[in-house]
């Protein structure tokens, strides 16, 4: 198991290099120039060149990338061009809000999705299964930003039960969690249902029925445990979504967080800040996949041997 984990960690190095290249060059392909947001009316071309030299924007992209990578390896994400503050400080200030929303939405979607999948698989072919499957289909097709707007209109504007926007207390977290977690519920429930149905057809389950064990014991104690391997795969991929998947939700609900910070930085063409935010989101996805591989290998030794 230790060797498997070390091999996975080594494989992260080329992945990190490719991600850093994509993150750096993709923002420089976006039309616009951050210097335009710093210049005042009537500024001279000499002042523009001075600002470009100050932030290293007068160098070639290769030189800029090498400089950025050198600082990145020392833990320095650079300084925001527009705000004039360290990128790491801006991310650290907004990261807790994104983690709060992402973790709450992940727990909500995981617990609700697994429960819905177990119920649907236990009542396969009945109206209960059809109803849950219908909700799964609905949840996987409704855009999260549209759902967020509808939730604001009904529960915040019409009924006044919760705040419209912001991050003031736990009540302001209810609607964003529902909007962000609905798609996850549909995905987890669908995977859980299919995995449990396939597992319930295996020989050992028939043997358990023949021994006279109660069906709910078989479903919860045996079938669900074996069906969790594909569910863990989905959940590991959604760990990265904890930070990155709620970008639109933060914007719709006007919540502070990495999503709102990234959108503002994109609008201002703040290269260092955009690069820092995108790198954080990308690394969250990579680390989530790594955790998923390790957990899968721990749960099923066959997975470890197949990927050795």
Topology (elements, then pairings):
Blueprint: H1 2-28, H2 45-54, H3 61-73, H4 87-122, H5 127-141, H6 144-158, H7 174-200, H8 203-210, H9 215-244, H10 247-252, H11 258-268, H12 271-299, H13 301-306
Structure explained in plain terms:
The mean pLDDT is about 85. The chain is mostly helical and about 300 residues long. The protein has helices at about 1-30, 45-55, 60-75, 85-120, 125-140, 145-160, 175-200, 205-210, 215-245, 245-250, 260-270, 270-300, 300-305. The chain is flat, with a radius of gyration of 24 Å. The longest helix has about 35 residues, at about 85-120.
| Helix/strand structural class | mainly alpha
Total number of strands? 0
Give the H and E element order.
HHHHHHHHHHHHH
% residues in beta strands: under 5%
Percent of residues in helical segments?
A: over 70%
Number of helices: 13
For the termini, the CA-CA separation is 10 Å
What is the approximate shape? flat
Please state the CA-atom Rg, rounded to the nearest Å.
24 Å
Q: Which sheet architecture does the biggest sheet show?
A: none
Mean model confidence by pLDDT: 85
As residue ranges, the low-confidence spans are none
């Amino acid at each position: 198991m230790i060797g498997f984990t070390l091999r996975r960690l080594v494989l992260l190095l080329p992945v990190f290099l490719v991600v850093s290249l994509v993150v750096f060059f993709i923002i420089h392909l976006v039309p616009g120039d951050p210097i335009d947001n710093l210049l005042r009316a009537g500024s001279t071309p000499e002042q523009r060149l001075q600002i470009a030299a100050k932030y290293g924007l007068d160098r070639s992209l290769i030189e800029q990338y090498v400089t950025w990578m050198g600082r990145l390896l020392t833990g320095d994400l650079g300084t925001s061009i527009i705000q004039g503050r360290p990128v790491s400080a801006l991310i650290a200030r907004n990261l807790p809000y994104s983690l709060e929303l992402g973790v709450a939405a992940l727990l909500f979607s995981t617990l609700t999705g697994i429960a819905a999948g177990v119920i649907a698989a236990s009542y396969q072919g009945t109206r209960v299964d059809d109803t849950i499957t219908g909700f799964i289909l609905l949840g996987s097709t409704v855009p999260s930003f549209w759902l967020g707007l509808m939730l604001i209109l009904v529960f915040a504007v019409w009924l006044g039960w919760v705040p419209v926007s912001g991050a003031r207390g736990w009540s302001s977290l209810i609607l964003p969690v529902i909007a962000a977690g609905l798609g996850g519920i549909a995905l987890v429930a669908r995977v859980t249902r299919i995995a449990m149905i396939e597992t319930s057809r295996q020989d050992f389950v028939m043997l358990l029925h023949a021994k006279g064990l109660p069906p709910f014991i078989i479903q919860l104690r045996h079938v669900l445990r074996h069906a969790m391997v594909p569910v863990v795969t989905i959940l590991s991929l959604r760990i990265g979504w904890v930070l990155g998947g709620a970008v639109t939700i933060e914007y719709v609900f006007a919540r502070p967080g990495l999503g709102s910070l990234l959108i503002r930085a994109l609008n201002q063409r703040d290269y260092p800040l955009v690069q820092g935010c995108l790198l954080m989101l990308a690394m969250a996805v990579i680390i989530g996949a790594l955790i998923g591989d390790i957990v899968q290998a721990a749960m099923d030794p066959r997975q470890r041997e197949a990927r050795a």
